Amino acid sequence: xxxxxxxxxxxxxxxxxxxxxxxxxxxxxxxxxxxxxxxxxxxxxxxxxxxxxxxxxxxxxxxxxxxxxxxxxxxxxxxxxxxxxxxxxxxxxxxxxxxxxxxxxxxxxxxxxxxxxxxxxxxxxxx
Length: 127
Fold this sequence. Notes:
Elements: H1 2-39, H2 44-53, H3 78-94, H4 98-126
């Protein structure tokens, strides 16, 4: 009975420490995502190179520096750096070029003109 009680007490003492470590890691990741959202933007030439060669999140494009973080002391935290690189990679991967938006806009415009033209032609035939 003593061993069971000791084991249960030991589990209750160890469990909160592991939960605290996880929440600290989550908060560092949250700070990293916030910093990427506020301060990070890949320059256009580097974006074109990134899109062409399909780099991974380990590329030097996504390395945090003193200029694009809220607290330079976080650069020493490996969890922060890993979360920052991942968030910067995801943000860059989701970015589109100007040509993409022009293409989508052009297709939408031509589709709208075709629908309006079809409606006018079919309305004129019924008269």
